[in-house]
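Quick question, first post here. What does this chain look like in 3D?
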Amino acid sequence: MQILTLNESPSPRTGLEAAEKIFFESSSKQTFSGEKERSQFRQRYFSVYAEGDPDWFLLAYSENGTVLGYLAGSPRMREEHFQLNPYLEGFRPAMERYPAHLHINFAAEARGLGLGSLLLAEFEQRLSQRSIPGVHLVTGAAERNVGFYNKNGYVEASRIQIGTSELVLLGKRL
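> Answer (accepted):
Ran it through. Tokens below.
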């Protein structure tokens, strides 16, 4: 597997299109009322990273050049993130300890092969090289990905209730 930033990619547009396909295929939200809602969802959880932090948007390529997955990250939460996702306000205090943020997704055929851990390690190494002290992600408290992140050294740092959903911020000090 080769890991490149969006800007390092041989074809950023093609890489981004492949990552967007993975984003929608792996999303827990599969139904949208129309293109406007789908576009807002894309902006909130995908495009804000690709457009705002292309040097932190990592693409995982197979030996034959296929995008297997991606990590959409940011070294620090920007106000735009909070505007797009107001629920993040409830996590702001914990984000001081874990300022970097990430989302990670892989194509179905690439899951369970240990590639996610390799992509996380690459992102964390890049953060450490820039003296960023910690990284976090937000997920549902009952989601199965919590175990994956725990196995990779992420711990629960904060928990909030949003309607009927319980969300957790998982963080890792670097």
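The chain has a mean pLDDT of 95.
The CA atoms of residues 44 and 84 lie 6 Å apart.
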